[in-house]
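Model the whole thing, not chain by chain.
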Amino acid sequence: MADNATLASLLARIARADHAALHSLYQAEAERLFGLTNAILRNREAAADALHDAFLRVAERAGQYDPAQGDAAAWLGGLVRYAALEQARRRGRERPSDDLMLGDAALAPEALEKVLAGAERKRLHWCLATLEEKYRRGILLAYVHGVSHAQLSARLHLPMASVRGWIRQGLLTLRDCAP
Amino acid sequence: MIPTDPEAREGLAAEFVLGTLEAFEAAAVAAALPTDAALREAVAAWEARLAPLQGLAPPEAPPPELWARIEATLKPATPAAPVARKPAQAEPMPVAPTMAPTAAEDSDGPGIWRLWALASTALAAALAAVLALR
């Protein structure tokens, strides 16, 4: 995985229509980004479609990346997530929550521990840890696996009518904790 | 469509980033972003707040042919409409194999396609101007 300065300079070159830079970015980031789309879509073909669409957008919008707004990797990941979510919605998010293990890896405390180890991430880690279990699970499942309200309701055993309210409550609690 | 109540707007921005909005709601937020600076700011803050969670998805190698496919879309074999987002191609599949083996990306680089793009854009603009004047 490339460091932030390298990614930022690749994005600057892509904004100047440097096609080789797009290829370098793909080589550096494709595995991480495909991991994101595949976690959301859980279907390699759909995940590849999403990454394809995302890279067309990167070619088009690289100039919109503003280093003042944060990491280049986070910007890229965000763009790729939106492409994957669009793909999921286009496919009707038809995948029922039949995979009972879904999200177990992402929800394991050790996974959070590892991912949020850096100093600037400690706060988010701590805030997630203080969230009620159902909020935390709901937020992580939705973010990592693109799970819909209906699927969350089934998975977390919460009534469909109130699941959106639960998630929103969890998000606002998280914001107050990690502004 | 986009609420005015600050808490409701904040919740909507959060759900947009989290990904739980239905297609029509997500589309409404996306459509409002260019003109609603406060909503844009809220969305950016949520993106930054949750971005570290991207690390929870395990990296995985994409299908090996994916890069060639991306390239083929960016540089279609027919240079008539190289920047069209959805080229009106009848058969998208045969394009890729003919593109892949040629070292087009190395020999003539993206410059020539950019030129084509500029030229066809300019031509389209000129045509539009002519039509408008008539």
